[in-house]
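User: I'm writing a short report section on ligand binding and want a predicted complex to refer to. Could you take this sequence and WT7 and write out the structure as tokens? A short remark afterwards would be nice.
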Amino acid sequence: MWRVRPLASLRPLLAGRPGWPPARAASSTNISAFMPEAAAFAGVRDYPALKQLSLRQAERFWEALARARLSWISPFHTVSDCDLARGSIRWFEGGRLNVSVNCIDRHVHTSPDKVALIWERDEPGAEVKITYRHLLEVTCRVANTLKRQGVRKGDRVTIYMPASPIAVASMLACARIGAVHTVVFAGFSAEALADRIQDAQSETVITTNQAVRGGRIIELKKTVDQAVKMCPSVKRVLVAKRTENEVPMSNIDIPLEEEMMREEAVCDPVAMESEDLLFLLYTSGSTGKPKGMVHTQAGYLLYTSLTHRYVFDYRDGDVFGCVADIGWITGHSYVVYGPLCNGGTTVLFESTPVYPNPGRYWEMVERLKINQFYGAPTAIRLLLKYGDEWVKSHDRSSLKILGSVGEPINSEAWDWYYRVVGDGRCPVVDTWWQTETGGICIAPCPAERDAEIIPAMVMRPFFGIDPVLMDDQGRRLMGNNTAGSLCIAQPWPGMARTIYNDHDRFITTYFKPYPNHFFTGDGAYRSEKGYYRITGRLDDVINVSGHRLGTAEIEGAVNQHRVVAESAAIGCAHEIKGEASYVFIVLKDGVDMTEHVIREELKGIVSQKIAKYAVPDYIQIVKRLPKTRSGKIMRRVLRKIVERKLDELGDLTTLDDHTAIQEIVAGHKEMLKKEAKE
Ligand code: WT7
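Assistant: Sure. The structure tokens for the complex follow:
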């Protein structure tokens, strides 16, 4: 199967398509009904004025919101102190607070029996509801266990667990005692886990005996055992029980539930400075080494709660269903911190979109009466193929808003989501953001009355976000109907503060390319009306099923195979995954293995070094790679070959050997032919 994702071709489709809502005359909004905090801004009467204020008087805007929305132990004295050139970003200094108190205790105070978490377990119909009171108890018990084990403020704790109440309680327990959590997606391999544990220098790992997904058991603890062998820093592994099965326990392993039950259900929260670390989350960049993005306390929490409230128009009593895993930033911001800070009810989804059948999401929406559903385009594209019946056989009348995140959503998927899933009555919010941005930056805001939404566009920036497009020369593109590198011109509270242990890389990656701007790594198009559409990554990062992967990471893995002399990985369009990885390999001399065996072994090595989702879909063995005379691989040329745009190979004057290209083109065709037969 080979189809090109219609990214570039989206533009003409956009004109005149049904959007949300149908055009209406603009009406004046009662701004304090929309945002009560706005009452403090004299003279601001409508939404556009509030938007303006959030940009032109950003400090005034964020000060009022931070005071109103967060519970402080002591108030801040400085709203913001940022110097983008030095990558120095500080918000709400002088203030002290505790994130777990903001996410739990204050809601226990007002509504202890309100449901905080709905754990949608793998087995449909077996959901577990956890109230705020209960969540506080569990969090305190985990916090006390961590303390008894010697975990102190500032220590890093690696969490390698699937979505579950105990995982959320572990994150919040860290926040309660001032430890820094670093959640590693439970799909990463032992080696990838070990790299992240070592980079963070974690002494503590929290995991489960096993995981359950799509009806299958996954030996999570075994993976942790392998990883820990490579990590001398690890002193203890806390093991929660997801299943009744026994797993081997060593002398550093501690059964979490048993220990917890011995602890008290109260634990004094530590007063944290606004800029103390809250968590690290690893994400891929252009090099082989993932970056530990650092988020801090107050700014992150404020930004996630505000975006959760307004982008999803989340109202008290709503059930919020974000199906992302807690191992990604989406899970941090919109399964855990945003919804809980707002006192909401949030779903923890443990299963897959097709288990036990492709109706799973919508059966869940019906059973849990989900009001906002937030998912990924890759899942929508997959479900669309199974037809409408799986959707229509379930009652989705509870749905109010549909969200999309992680990668560009093509217009076919957008349309199906809007028409079939949402019955044409729920706004679809395509939300653009990144691990680095902490929360949603560009998205429609349906809470705003009369807000226009055009299919497959991320539309408008959120409050306080000032997106700009730059050309190749680093000049700001002023007009509309233009495309360029997407940057953000002004700091906002949710942005990452540094890369753990590598502030230079932080500056080089995000602030050097366009001085005084945050560079996102994405390209974007701005329409006639000033609306945004994301066109994709500009760097060597690819996006497989909404998960970021560095092509250098893939190359690093395959290069470790003894037959590989060199390799080049690129992303290519994939019908379901959005992008798949395509790897070109040059073999060492005298290799006597069949191509089939080589391919299988290379797939194995990527799965072992990184994760299953990173396994390349295509591996093409070539005699040589197209290189410049100075020896740089010309990935651009490889991409054009795979996109079959041979007339767009561009400037080849620096190419050292033109026959390389002919060979690769022929080999590529051959491979596709073979595949079509299989
Ligand atoms: C990259 C960030 C944001 C949470 C999940 C991914 C791509 C994200 C969109 C969107 C087009 C998108 C970008 C971005 N991306 N959302 N709505 N439309 N592209 O977080 O792993 O940090 O990846 O995902 O390329 O840079 P992440």
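A remark for your report: Confidence is low (pLDDT under 50) at residues 1-28. Residues 283, 328-330, 405-408, 430-435, 458, 520-522, 534, 537, 543, 548 surround WT7 (CB under 6 Å).
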